[in-house]
Amino acid sequence: MISQVFILTSKGDHLIFKDFRGEAGVDAINAFYESVTALSGDQPPVVMTHKDMHFIHVRQGGLYWVASTKTSASPFTIIEFLNRLTALTKDYCGTLCEKSVRANFALIYELLDEMVDYGYIQTTSTDILKNFIQTEAESSKPFSLFDLSNVGLFGADTQQSKVAPSAAATRPIMANRGEQGGKNEIFVDVIERLAMVIGSNGIIMKADIEGEIRVKCYLPNCSEMRIGLNEGLSIGKSQLRGYGSAVRVDECSFHQAVKLDEFDTYRIIKVCPSQGEQVIMQYQVCDDLPCPPPFRLFTSVERDSGNRLLLYLKLRCDLPPKSAAINVSISVPVPKGAISLSQELSSPDQRAELQPKNKAVLWEIPRFPGGSQLLALFKMEVPGLSSASLLEVGPVGMCFELPKHTCTGLQIRFLRLTPTQPGSSQRWVRYVTHSDSYTIRV
Amino acid sequence: MPYLSTEETVKELKRALSNPNIQSDRLRYRNYIMRVIRSMTQGLDVSALFMDMVKASATVDIVQKKLVYLYMCTYASLKPDLALLAINTLRKDCADPNPMVRGLALRNMCNFRMPGMTEYIHQPILTGLKDKASYVRRVAVLGCAKMQSLQPNAEIDATIVNELYGLLRDPDPVVMVNCLRALEEILKHEGGVVINKPIAHHLLNRLKELDSWAQGEVLTFLLRYKPRGEDELFDMLSLLDGLLHSSHAPVMAATLRLFLQLAAPHPAVQADALEQARGPLLATCGSQSRELRFAGLCHVQQVLRSQPAQFGVHYKRFFCGYSEPAYIKFRKMEILVELVNDENVGLVLEELRGYCTDVSPELAQAAIAAIGRIGRTYSEKCLDILTGLLGLKQEHITSAVVQTFRDLVWLCPQSTATVCQAVEGCEESLQDSEGKQALLWLLGMHGGQISNAPYVLESHIDGLKTEMSSVVKLELLTAAVRLFLLRPAETQDMLGRLLHYCIEEESDMNVHDRALFCYRLLECGLEETRRVFQGPKSDPCMGVLTGCPQEPINSWASKFNTLWLLGASEVVPASSDTAASDQPAHSSQGDALAEAVDEQLSIPEEGQQSPDLSLGAPLSHEAFERHWLELCVTHREALGFQGPPSASESLQAALQLVKIQTLAFSRESTTPWKAYLYTHGSGTLILAELLQDESEAGNSSTGLVVSLKQLPENKMAIQEFVSVLRTVLQTLTKDGS
């Protein structure tokens, strides 16, 4: 059972404080904040104990979301509850940040009041909760430079007409209540996270994909949605369908509300989406990537006469020519004490800088079309360079986004709503692959 | 908000809230109420506005109502008299046709944490339990628990308990789960809600209707149920089988815990459950939420301690991600060390090797230590990597490597030769004291195999004046003496200088004394010194100990899916629960004794209870005093007897018979007259003070007053104690008259 829930900014300001059981006073917040800040490093452990109180917190949107309890409750439950709270906050307020929480604190209090009574979770379903929530969300201001940086997220620049602006999915679900201006939209996102380790000889050491189908629904009344996946989709190692190029996942699980009666034969999942965001299917692929890895890196490290280190990098993007990776950043660890980077990059929109604090060179590429390759040469002065120092040029880490691309090849064939929505309902299907962790050994 | 002091803010808000212009403008009024709540959240004391907020509660605007209720629940305990004003509105709302309003009012009324609240909420709760809207019933059920917590000393209301047991059959699943929760709290002192066979089966049958939170909780309640016979057990488990694959981590973990605990006598079933839950458990380790990932990793680590083979194939899932926070990386490294086997050792080591040059020194050192741990089994490969790392000549890496070497040499003597070769020449890049100590230990122990040992030692002795750490100096003394025993010719001179310096100039007493000790020992002759200083050079059997054997699953099954596994330090166990459930076993004996005593004393009929007091372990005066000062009075009652009992000795004897120990009492004629008593009963220690204060004769009707303190609290025991005391005093006064 939960004793208190509070939300703090990273500076320790109280945004929300709700005491469900009256077991401890407001001092608990300070006790928590002190123990968080007393720890070294940015990432404190999840569970902390002060006197007889346990504090469990998650960090999202730059905020601490904390639950405290006196009993030894299930950690999974409390962490999932806090995650659910953040998700609901996002649903109701549009975005998840200090500003939106500050602006909508009354709404969040209302949510908490309905979600938890006397420390016991009552309900967290958006459908049920929306009957009780009366406060209207205050969305953030209509225009900001900050939003512009997200425009390319789903490839808005390539197919202007067919792609929803990225801000479309970040509005509160209940705004425009009573007005007819609210757009009837539904977003179905296939999101994959790729974790790879590639050995120095180019052999794939590890390749895991965690994927999910996420529905974000703004339709006020939608009775059933049918989502058709690839017909050749096979699940598990033993099962094979079709020939050769079948799409395969190792394990998958579905949201409780999903009906699977047509899944086995036609690969159709049926679901009645409730308003807000929910993950309807999760799947994993381990150790067997159906496509070549999106990036290959060829490095050569040389020691110049004296204390100069030469680093040649050749990065190849093996995506199909139509797609492209965006926001690619490559972090190459370099020997300690490296100074004065000089660089040769192949195009002006790329950037590279030496970060002495992380002892790494960070190379950023805003857009990287499939099938192309980029070259870079970095020269560094390293005082006291020895041959052993070359060992410090360690595993290269990469971060990127692949819009309109799934590594498993999972596709949504169709998306049907019943009853057919009158008029203006819009359906969006979006694909994106994120790098969870992409490491290439040198 | 401008930086105003609390007082000014409160004043300003008060002015605004009582301004009729603002009151008539709904939105502006609500905005000011929001500001009050905001200030409250920020920690300002705005309780002075209570009156204005009570006024604001009389509104049809539900948003405003909710805000005001939130305010009132926070401050009701500070302003109980004003809070009573709001109760009328709330009670009226409890009869509103709209179930949402009814539920809201009832919930908030029960949340007022002030003592006199019970009489106002009792009736609405009873009505709420029978409400036709499930929303109101949910609130009312938890309201019962809140009511109990408001007056913890009160008798448990049996009708409410029965009502709640009945509501377990409620069609609404949340009402059902709330009933379990409420009963658990109300019956806390009696060991919580009873899960008998019909209830257990009812819960199992309805598990499918519940949402995942409730499922997790019901599964935890089911832990308490002991199935009769194996058939029932296996029926139960096969019913729950599917939940092991739940995509919802809390449900999966709760189910797994239930499997592990219920199937405690069947290791094969436990192993099978772990096997089945492996996929979902691994999925949580790769979850998008870092915190969930961490929780998953902690549980995987625990499973590994019992079943090392379980995750061996999946070692790649525990490779650290590039952007993961340090606390996850540390866990993953620990897991990698534990699941290493002949097949994956090469790849795991290669991965760990990559972490050794990490930017964060802590992470790099942990990675090196992890390689060292693996080195206890696969020494050759690890030694290669570690030796390679010395080439980097970085302080923190070299220090960690040398420390790892020391541990390796101690546990695996076969690695000595390689280590001795490797440590030559690494002394320049050692700066921290831990690293130096490790190197000095190696030089002393294995100086015979390290060719430049005397030179390294000499450079340390020459730099002694600048050495800050006394621990390093102590290690240096030991190492010098040991090396002297191995290579006397090269070391004699420097040992002399070292001893001279430490005895004559060293200010640290520890070092000084150790030096004197070494000096005197050397005077006793070489043989004696050798016997003292040259112990065994390694202890391979330690490796068996540290290579910890597999823990049995049952040793941690009860900890599974609790905060304990995530490193929460154990809180003092909820003593009331355990004590209450442990108690009946040894109290029956007390019963018999007490009854025998009853007969002897010829206690009147109404005194025929079964008090279970016992003398227990004797309490010293000091201990009594300490307890008495620490605890606060839980119960005070006037017993209605005039004057102290005639003879204190007879009182003491009589009390002894009913298992109450008299610690001290004043002489008969003194005023005020006092006696201190103690006893053990129902798992608690009761301390009592009897006081007859004549000086306050104004209200002489009070007579003899008893004050009780208790550790831990237990209402029942207090009542029993008082009734026993009363009967004893009655008997005595009757005898006296």
UniProtKB/TrEMBL annotation, chain A:
GO biological process: intracellular protein transport; vesicle-mediated transport
Compartment(s): Membrane, Coated pit
CDD domains linked to this entry: AP-4_Mu4_Cterm, AP4_Mu_N
KW Protein transport (keyword) present: yes
Record domain MHD: where: 183-441
Keywords: Coated pit, Membrane, Protein transport, Transport
Keyword Protein transport annotated: yes
GO cellular component: clathrin adaptor complex; clathrin-coated pit
Name of protein: AP-4 complex subunit mu-1 isoform X2
Organism, as annotated: Clupea harengus (Atlantic herring)
UniProtKB/TrEMBL annotation, chain B:
Biased amino acid composition, Polar residues: 575-590
Annotated GO CC locations: clathrin adaptor complex; endomembrane system
Domain Beta-adaptin appendage C-terminal subdomain, chain residue ranges per copy: 613-730
Recorded GO MF terms: clathrin binding
One GO term (biological process): vesicle-mediated transport
Superkingdom classification of source: Eukaryota
Entry annotated with the keyword Hydrolase: no
Residue numbers spanned by region Disordered: 575-594
Keyword terms of this UniProt record: Membrane, Protein transport, Transport
Record-linked Pfam families: Adaptin_N, B2-adapt-app_C
Lipid bilayer topology: Peripheral membrane protein
The keyword Membrane belongs to this UniProt entry's keyword annotation: yes
Protein name: AP complex subunit beta
Species of the source: Clupea harengus (Atlantic herring)
